[in-house]
Amino acid sequence: MPTLQWLDDGQARRAVDKVPYRMLRPDDALSCGDPAAENMLIQGDNLDALKSLMPYVAGRVKCVFIDPPYNTGSAFEHYDDNIEHSTWLSLMYPRLELLRDLLAEDGSVWVSIDDNEVHYLKVIMDEVFGRKNFIANVLWQKRTSPDARLQISQAHDHVLCYARSIERYVFGKLPLSEKQSKSYKNPDNDPRGPWASTDYSAQGFRPNQMYTIVTPGGKSYSPPPGNCWKNVESVFQTLVADNRIWFGKDGRGVPRRKTFLSESEGRVPWTWWENAEVGHNQEAKNETKELFDKDDVFATPKPERLIQRVLQIATNPGDLVLDSFLGSGTTAAVAHKMGRRWIGIEMGAHAVTHCAPRLKKVVEGEPGGISKAVGWTGGGGFRFCRLGEAVFDAYGAINPEVTFEALAAHVWFSETGTPARRDRRKSPLLGVHNGTAYYLLYNGILGDRRTAGGNVLNSAIYASLPPFDGPKVIYGEWCQWGAERLKRERVAFKQTPYDVRVR
C-alpha cells in the first residue's frame, strides 16, 4: 500500500516506543461527583497520556472522537494551530497509533478536520488503521451562510471515520427526524399503525424476479426497464397475504412495500450532515459562552449535537468514549449526558480552567446543549488526574513511588496484552490468562520489603500465595529456588523490573 513521506517521518513512526509509561495522579480537589465513577479527565501531553492508559483500557474504547488542531495558519489562543505541515503529520502519526491500540475490535475512530490537512490525514490513517477499515468521509455543514470575504466560502468540515476491524463493526441507526416521522400515514387503517411505502422494484436483472404482478384491481405490472422486483414471487405473495404491499386506494396502483413506524429501527446514516440536525459553529460558540460567560472562549468549538450524532451511530449506553484533544470538553460532556463512560485528555491550563468546571456543571445537571433532548438532569462523576513520574527510569529501574496496583497493571498487560481489571482485589495473584496464573511480588504485598517479607520467591512465600493448579509466572525481585524446583512447581520466574516488557 502506498505510504506518505515527510520530513522526519521515520522518527514519527518510531515515536511510540520512546514514550515512557507515566503514572496517573488523581487530584481530589478537581474531581467531582461519584468517587467510583470510571470517567477520567487527564491533564497532560496527550501522547504520554495515551501511552499511560494502555495497561488499563487497551482494546476497550468503543469510540474515539478527536478534533485536533487544523493547521490552518491561524493563531488560536488555546492551541498553536500554525504548525509546519511535516510537524503536524509527526504530531498526528504516533497519536493515531496509540488510539488504534486503545480501540475495541468493534470500535471506531472519528477525526474532525478541514481541507488543509484532510487528504494527508486520510493517507496516514489508511496506513495506521488499514485502508480496508475506512468507513466514510462525513461532511458536516458547519456554516449557515457563505463568508463574503472569500472567493469560495467553505461550508463544511470533514469527519474521517475508520473501524478498528471492518469485520466487527456494527453501527447503530439514527432516530427518525420529525419530518420523516410525519411521513408515516395509515390510509388503509392497518391495525399495526402508521406506515410509509417504498418502491418495490430494484436495479438489475435477476430472472427469478422478473414476474408479472396483477393488482387486486386487475391491472398488470412488469418491472420497469433495467429493473427487477425486489423479491422472488413466493416472497411477494407472502407480503401480499400479510398486507405489506400497497396498491393504492383503488387497488390498481404500482406495488409498493409498506414499512411500519412501529417496526422501524431508525434511518441509515449518510455522509451529509446538515447543520439543522447537528448544529453549526455559531451554535457551538453560543454553548460555550453560556457555560463560561466569556466572549473569547475557543474559536472553533464543536456543537453538542454534532458529538451526539457520532455517539448515536458508534456507541451504546455504557460504552467507553475517548477524546485526546478535549478542547472545551464537549465530547466528555455529551458522552456523560448520553450515559457513556468517557476519558478526556487536555494538555493546557484550560483542563483546569474550562474542562473541569464544565464537566462539574454537567454532573450538577447543566441544562444547555443536548440536555433537554436526552432528559439530562445530573448525576455521575469523574476523576481529575495529572500525569506523574515515569513508571520506569531511563535505566529500566522502577520508580520508588510506583504503587503495587500500577506495576501490576503493567505486568498483566506485558504478559497478556489485555488491560488490567480496575475492580481486581489487591492480591499477588493478578489473574489467570489462557491457563496460566500470573503473580507479582512487589512493595510488600505479602508483608514488608525484607527477603522473607514478600518480594523474593522462596518456599515460605510460595506456600502463602493463592493456589493455582497449573503453570505459573511469578514476578519478584529475586528467586531463591534452582531450576529443578522451578520446573517441578511449573513456575517461570521473572525479575522486576528487567523482565517487564511493555510496548
Which properties best describe this structure?
503 residues, alpha/beta, Rossmann fold, 3 domains, 11-stranded mixed sheet, 16 helices
Short account of what is shown:
Helices cover 28% and strands 22% of the residues. With 503 residues, it is of the alpha/beta class. The longest helix is centred in the N-terminal third of the chain and has 18 residues.
How would you describe the overall organization of this protein?
The chain is of the alpha/beta class and 503 residues long. The protein folds into three domains: 9-173 and 268-390, Rossmann fold, CATH 3.40.50; 178-263, no CATH class; 404-495, no CATH class. Helix content is 28%, strand content 22%. It is built from 16 helices and 24 strands. Strands 1, 2, 3, 4, 5, 6, 7, 15, 16, 17 and 18 form an eleven-stranded mixed beta sheet that branches. The chain has a four-stranded mixed beta sheet with strand order 19-20-22-24. Helix 11 (330-337) links the parallel strand 16 and strand 17 (341-346). The protein starts with 8 loop residues before the first helix and ends in an 8-residue tail after the last strand. The mean pLDDT is 90.
